[in-house]
Amino acid sequence: MSYRHAQVVVNQAWSVPEEGRAKFEAAVLKSAGTLTASKLKYNARILRERWHPETIRARHQKSVKDRAVFFEPEPDGMASLTFYASAEKAQAAHERITLMALSLQCAEEDRTLTQLKADVFEDLILDGVTPSGLGKGIRGSVNITVPVFSLMGLNDEPAHMEGYGPIDADTARRIAAGAPSFTRLLVHPETGVVLSVGRDRYKVPKDLKKYLRVRDETCRFPGCNRSAAHSDIDHSLDWQFNGLTAEDNLAHLCPPCHALKSETGWTVKHLEDGVLQWRSPSGRAFMSEPATVIRAVEPEPPPGESAKTSVPQPSPF
Of 162, 100, 130, whose CA–CA distance to 292 is shortest? Predict the structure, then answer.
């Protein structure tokens, strides 16, 4: 069998209880060497149902609670969106998208059926409205960090999309051209962005929140990837222990990780450039690096002046 064939068998066998696994494996391996991987997957799924000791009704009632939508970054500025739901609903959704795509085919249409299905799905998911009206007026948004020279077209340095990573400069400029607003993030406090309010206030100012969201992008607890948009901004040294409301004492933590940090022996220390050093109750150290490192940069000095006398200026993004 090929590696893909073995993957198919393993993916179906792992969820079969031990008492039915041997019979399942014996049945599926009989024809594994003579089928394509896709056909083997189909057969294995049917055999799994036959040899699984628990009824499909009971398993479906539990599995339907796991329905979800998954976002998965892919190479070259692409990504996958997976809809995991009851088979009849997923099948109906795919059939509807296919029929809508087929209706667009004509002599003047140069897109393939696969491309048409993707475009139909895109239009439905970005602008569609449910029968109850849910979705009307709601638009998803993306946060793009674009180097200023790339935005001006002076170079093609990649931009950074929150929750994804690098995207090409052309796409970033196209998004920027239609963006309703810009947030100018400057990394030096004298330029206007408040990076610290010290002990003057507990609540984090709006511009500092934006700075932290671009810097962190996700929960900063080791191994957690929950979006910063759905996380809390935590004082690493608690406010009641004289912690400051400053960028070097603040980090995003999702509610479960926030509770873990507050209620257990985990500790965190801020290092340079937004890097966090976590230490577990057992003493093991973990490093959490920021999604975006925003540093002040020095401009080129005027002719005749030494670079040592130049004053650091902020770098806009």
Answer: 162
